[in-house]
Structures are given as structure tokens and as C-alpha cells.
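To assess whether ligand presence alters the predicted conformation, the chain was also submitted together with adenosine-5-diphosphoribose. Input:
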Amino acid sequence: MSIGPENILILTGAGISAESGLGTFREKGGLWEKFDPMKLATPEAFADDPARVLEFYNARRANLADAKANAAHFALAELEQAWMMAGRGEFTLVTQNIDDLHEQAGSANLLHMHGELLKTRCQACGHLYTDAGPITHGAPCSACGKPHGLRPHVVWFGEMPLGLDQIYRAMDRVDLFIAIGTSGTVYPAAGFVQEAKKLGAWTVELSLEPGEVSEIFDEGIYGPATEFVPEWVAKKLA
Ligand code: APR
């Protein structure tokens, strides 16, 4: 008897990009250990000292320039491809990451709920464009010409994450929810597992170590993403 469709929703966090050399936030030596997020990743911080905030994100853009997608990113792109080709069900990839490594690996149905580091947005007119270079403090927007309005298109603490309606629509039909490389500390992302479980999905935490909401997951797989994500995908596609 043929099995029905299996709709997959995957949530990734900084841990999936750790082995590509990009830092995580809350681990030893993590970004928020070196920098105070309240001074760099809030709208108030940007209003108060835009030059300092831009310097921080320009440095992260430069850091991203030579980062490469790793085996875990590629495995998820392969799973998406195979799932869609075989018509096995829906596949939605939601990332909290602002890097472009999922894109580099070929992921298509991808949603950056915390924005994208390589995009610049004008606060005055909303003009949004890809820009891997540094944002110069005070530079005029190429669309409206207003200066001092350019910021990285990333979601700061206290701002609404992007695409939530799309995410919850996909969540409504999810059969399998996997959280990869995220500590489960920042909401609403950390609440997705609860939501998925309520809707009857099977839930898997795949990370280096159990996160803050690990006891909610049905299944836990702990170890480096570049080892365990490809292995998990291979089993899923077998
Ligand atoms: N393989 C798999 N998981 C890993 C690896 C690895 N090689 N290295 C670290 N991890 C796991 C850690 O165990 C941890 O659970 O990745 C997680 C990283 O957690 P955080 O640093 O808190 O990152 P994340 O969960 O993505 O943070 C969420 O917080 O600061 C905000 O907007 C920022 O999107 C970020 C959000």
C-alpha cells in the first residue's frame, strides 16, 4: 500500500554553519560572549550608534566572504531535490542564519526568518538589495537618495522575524519537523517544536548537544552536523 505524502519542515541554526568556520552565538567563544547583542543587534543600538553597528555587520560580511557550504548544507539541498522530484510531500527549510550557505549548497525553498547579512535595506524607503560589501555610514540610498538610512537586512532583537505566516502555514501540514544546530533559546523559532508536536508531527533534534527545549523532541541525534545530517538524509532517502 502506498505511503501518503510526508511533509517535512526543517529549522536550522548557527550550528549547521559552525563547521564552515562561522561562529555560533551562545557557545564558548561564541559571538555573544565577545560582543554585547544589546549594543549591536537592536534597533535602539543602531539609532544610538549606527557606525558601531555597521562596523560589526561589515566585519561579519567580510568573514562570510570566504565561508563555504559544508556537507550538512549540501545534504539538505539533496534531500529537498529528491523529495520534490519523487513527489514525496512538501519540503520547507527555515533558517535562523543570516549567512548564504544554504543558497550556496543549492537549497531553493528557503526562508530566512532572521533576514540576510548580504542584503542591505533602506530604512527610509524600504529599498532592498544584495550587497556583499561594507555599508558606509551616512551613505545615500541608491533608490531614494536619503542618507543615514542604510542597514543590514537582518532581524534585530525586538523586531518581528520574517515570514512567520508562511512558516505557520507550512507548520499546519507538517509530518516531520527537524531542528538542526540550534540551541532553542530564541523565540518564536524555539517554539516551533511545540507547535509541530501539537499538530502530530514527529520531531527530531539534531545538534552537537541537547538544547534548551530538547526534552520536547521525540528523537535526539547529537554530534557534528557534517557527520550526522548527511547520515540522517541518506537514511531518509533509502
Ligand atoms: N554541529 C551541529 N550543531 C552544532 C555544531 C556542529 N558542529 N556546533 C554547535 N552546534 C550547536 C550547539 O550545540 C548549539 O545548540 O549549534 C547551536 C548553536 O546555538 P546558538 O549559538 O544559540 O545559535 P542559534 O540557536 O542559531 O541562535 C538563534 O539567536 O542571537 C540570535 O539571531 C540569532 O539566529 C540567532 C538566534
